[in-house]
Amino acid sequence: MVSPVILAVLSMLATGFTDFIYKRARVKGAAPALFLLYQSISFNATNMAFVVYSGSVNITLVTIIFGASCASLVYLSVYIFLKSLGLGQASTNVPIFRLSFIITAVLALLFLHESATFGRMLAVGLAALSILTLSSSFRSSPTSFTAVLQLAFATSAYGLFGVLYKIAITMGSSPVGILVVQGMFFITYAFLAAKREGPIVKSRRILVHAPICGILFSSSYLLLLESLKHGDVSVSFSIVQLSFIVTSFLAMLVWREEIQVRSVLGIILAVLAVLSFSYP
Prior knowledge:
Low-confidence stretches: 138-143
Helix content: over 70%
Distance between the termini: 21 Å
Oligomer: single chain
Strand content: under 5%
């Protein structure tokens, strides 16, 4: 059996590359609603590949309920996140969004009765301080207040999604089954949102980026779900959210984004928070 921590780290890497591609697509002018529609097609195709590989898929009423709920939270949070990327730097926006693990960890400690160790309590404090530090760096931008509000809402929704994943696994849902249901509802939301904003057209900038994000997203979620089968969500989900380090590094390397001292401090505090969640 592969360690839950290793699975979470692999999920983290896939998520980090996804966020980087998200930012690149937004820089190229990709519309969020249309982008998510094309991404959802690739996401569902990848899910079907997992079904073929596993040989079967088990979908129960519980799987449908939680799959639909997760799809709703993911679509809402990712759509808002994509829009926010047009209001700030990836090296700042992505860390704040990925700090959704605070919500997940606190809910897991309160309602899933996961261990409230010293390390996890320390992590909550470090993560909260990190959010304040990262958010303060937005004040240098005229659109900072709007970006912070959008990201705060998206972060909360994504944090709740992490808890629902764990509950679904605990109640016997299979990882592939959850992904299949989640993908079906996600593509429905994506189609309706894209149709509402205008005609569904082909866009080279979207067709280049969206399919890659769909594959990475599906793979990342499957790895996370497999990790949650034997690991605590407060640890696994937190490790996955370390993905912003990958994204920020790529952003600095490729786009030469200017990183303020407060941003660097916020990222360091976030890394310490994630590491503290794993401390016994």
